[in-house]
UniProtKB/TrEMBL annotation:
Function recorded in the entry: Affects the rate of fibrils formation. May have a primary role in collagen fibrillogenesis.
Cell location: Secreted, Extracellular space, Extracellular matrix
Record-level GO cellular component terms: extracellular space
Signal peptide, first to last residue: 1-17
The LRRNT domain, residue ranges: 45-79
Record's protein name: Fibromodulin
Key words, A-Z: Disulfide bond, Extracellular matrix, Glycoprotein, Leucine-rich repeat, Proteoglycan, Repeat, Secreted, Signal
InterPro entries: Leu-rich_rpt, Leu-rich_rpt_typical-subtyp, LRR_dom_sf, LRRNT, SLRP
Pfam families: LRR_8
Natural source organism: Danionella cerebrum
Length: 344
């Protein structure tokens, strides 16, 4: 039945394209017909240890198979799932002719070695998940087409200057849980970057230059002591800043460092602050628990002269500091009138 249907479709195509050489057409029909029939039954050629569902012939599922090396990847593949195995090496020829891969899931393996050209030909690659491996550096020659690059939970301790060069479409870059002491490279050219997670590294200072589009910046659990003046005013889209578990002191924070009208959420918990930094009236969530704050300064939230210009703060966490609820001035009710969750 299928063969007949196929022939009919083929004939229709042929009659619509009458200027084609019939001999070439017949042989191409034969080849394509055979390949299509196979695809109908099995999804096309597929490495034995993987599943290639016939209903989704461009996807190859090889996750959780106890594999310790890269399988052969048929050239038609676009979505390749190899996570949760024991792969240690991605050699230069790992992808052979499978240059159309769009998603490549390699997380939760033991990868420590990647050929310098391994990913170079994957010109359509959007998502590359290499998190939870044993990498000590960012693989070389990553495709510029990447949009989502996950390298968290590795042992990366240095970024090569050109590690992310030309990735104008990169929107997500996850580097948390690595051994970085310095970002070193300018990330400013990552024009589309909206989320940067560099938490749980060993950073001593904030990254130097970051793209303006940035929306979320996660710096938790590093050793950062200071924020340069006007650091946050360079980002017009920044809404979420997480700085918990660092070494921030008030000395390291210029007067208006966090008084940035775009911020929605600011996490400064588990630092060494002795007073509440000035924040914008538009901030909605402020986490300050487990610092050494000694005083409740209402002027950090609202201008005292203009109490009608109240704070938009909804959540304020202050527990684990050196103040108690009794230290809140009575005007706080006016200034923080939207706050539904204040914990002291
Ligand atoms: C890739 O394609 C070329 C040309 O079609 C072919 O000669 C070669 O054997 C293919 N390589 C692999 C690994 O399939
Ligand atoms: C991870 O890499 C280190 C070298 O960087 C090596 O000593 C270690 O055995 C690797 N671990 C695994 C589980 O492969
Ligand atoms: C970024 O995306 C646009 C639109 O999809 C595309 O035209 C362009 O080639 C991409 N840039 C890179 C470096 O891949
Ligand atoms: C916060 O910034 C605004 C303008 O961006 C400014 O008017 C205000 O005085 C600043 N707050 C404090 C307490 O400095
Ligand atoms: C409220 O005060 C801030 C500075 O504290 C200022 O930027 C803003 O324009 C004021 N808003 C109104 C409605 O007065």
């Amino acid at each position: 039945m299928r063969l007949i249907a196929l022939l009919l479709v083929g004939l229709l195509k042929f009659t619509l394209a009458t200027n084609r050489d019939p001999f070439i057409w017949l042989s191409s029909l034969h080849n394509r017909g055979y390949a299509s029939l196979q695809a109908d039954n099995t999804g096309g050629e597929c490495p034995e240890e993987c599943d290639c569902p016939p209903t989704f012939p461009m996807a190859m599922y090889c996750d959780n198979r106890n594999m310790n090396k890269m399988p052969y990847i048929p050239s038609r593949m676009k979505y390749v799932y190899l996570q949760h195995n024991q792969i240690t090496t991605v050699p230069n020829n790992a992808f052979g002719n499978a240059t159309n891969i769009v998603w490549l899931m390699l997380h939760e393996n033991l990868i420590s070695s990647v050929g310098k050209q391994a990913f170079a030909k994957l010109a359509n690659l959007n998502r590359l998940y290499l998190n939870n491996n044993n990498l000590t550096e960012v693989p070389s020659n990553l495709p510029r087409s990447l949009q989502d690059l996950r390298l968290n939970h590795n042992k990366i301790n240095k970024l090569q200057p050109n590690a992310f060069e030309g990735m104008a479409n990169l929107t997500v870059l996850l580097l948390h849980h690595n051994g970085l002491q310095d970002i070193g490279v300018g990330l400013k050219s990552l024009k589309s970057l909206t989320l940067l997670d560099v938490s749980r590294n060993q950073l001593k200072k904030v990254p130097d230059s970051l793209p303006e589009m940035l929306h979320q910046l996660y710096l938790d659990s590093n050793s950062i002591e200071a924020v340069p003046a006007n650091y946050f005013s360079q980002f017009t889209n920044l809404q979420y800043v997480r700085f918990s578990h660092n070494e921030l002191t008030n000395k390291g924070i210029p007067q208006n460092a966090f008084n940035n009208s775009g911020l929605v959420e600011l996490d400064l918990s588990f630092n060494k602050l002795e007073s509440i930094p000035v924040v914008s009236t538009s901030l909605q969530h402020l986490y300050l628990q487990a610092n050494h704050i000694k005083e409740f300064t209402l002027g950090s939230f609202c201008s005292v002269v203009d109490v009608m210009n109240f704070s938009k703060l909804r959540v304020l966490r202050l527990e684990g500091n050196e103040i108690s609820a009794g230290d809140m001035p009575s005007e706080a009710a006016l200034c923080l009138r939207l706050a539904s969750d204040i914990a002291v």
